[in-house]
Design brief:
binds protoporphyrin IX containing FE; 69% helix; Cytochrome Bc1 Complex, Chain C; mainly alpha; 8 helices
Length: 216
């Protein structure tokens, strides 16, 4: 049955064509579990995206209702606490796996040509993941989230020359408030995930074209 559905989809969309060699490509001889870390980071990303989509059904990105919507999600929605915890944990694991993956790549010297652009793409992906973590931290709209964002955005104010401009850009005004919440919500749920997906596509495309490096 599944085979029938796959063949039907393939006839319409020609899905197998570009991925024909994907499962039969050559791999380095000395593979070890550390080569799975990139895939584990991507799995954590998928998990955080799936739980984030579920959270967005109940979360209200407004200064008046954000905190209450999180409390309600946690206490009154079936398995809401679980979805929220998985979202938080998968986001943390994404950072851990990405750092370990980058360390594996560094130790194997896979940042050298021809993979230098892929190294840069990965580094940009890591910056975006950190932006996602920072913007997501404000969304519960409790005291901890509020003051962390006051401090975090305040640090941008120390930038020589452009400090004042940067703080207003991040906060949507002189203080952290509803405008900041909406800005961070938009970045966290739309802008950053969209940019990350483009980075992931480029990253995986290069891995596929260049193959996995042979290690040390
Ligand atoms: C942002 C999250 C990331 C994901 C989901 C991801 C995923 C992957 C995957 C699945 C692979 C192929 C298998 C493997 O080697 O593990 C890979 C390879 C690679 N990644 Fe990442 N990566 C990420 C971040 C990074 C970072 C931060 C860097 C470096 C700064 C990086 C640099 C590379 C390089 C150079 C390769 C090729 C490695 C080789 O050929 O041995 N990646 N990545």
């Amino acid at each position: 049955m599944i085979d029938f559905i796959i063949r039907l989809l393939d006839r319409w969309f020609k899905l197998r064509e570009p991925h024909r060699n994907f499962l039969s490509r050559a791999l380095p001889e000395k593979l070890n579990p550390a080569y799975c870390l990139g895939g584990m980071a991507f799995t954590a990303f998928l998990l955080s995206a799936a739980t984030g989509l579920l959270l967005s059904i109940y979360y209200v990105p407004s200064g008046k209702e954000a905190y209450q919507s999180i409390v309600m999600l946690h206490n009154r929605i079936w398995l809401g606490w679980l979805v929220q915890s998985v979202h938080k944990w998968s986001a943390n694991l994404l950072i851990v796996f990405t750092l370990l993956h980058a360390a594996r790549v560094f130790i194997h010297k896979a940042y050298r040509p021809p993979r230098e652009l892929n190294w840069m793409a990965g580094a940009l992906g890591f910056v975006l993941i950190m932006v996602s973590g920072f913007t997501g931290y404000l969304l519960p709209w409790d005291q901890r989230a509020y003051w962390a964002t006051v401090v975090g955005t305040g640090m941008a104010g120390k930038t020589p020359g452009a400090g004042g401009f940067l703080v207003r850009l991040l906060r949507g005004g002189p203080e952290v408030g509803s405008a900041t919440l909406l800005r961070f919500y938009s970045l966290h749920t739309l802008w950053v995930p969209f940019m990350l997906l483009m980075i992931f596509w480029a990253h995986f495309h290069m891995v596929k074209r260049q193959g996995i490096s042979g290690g040390m």
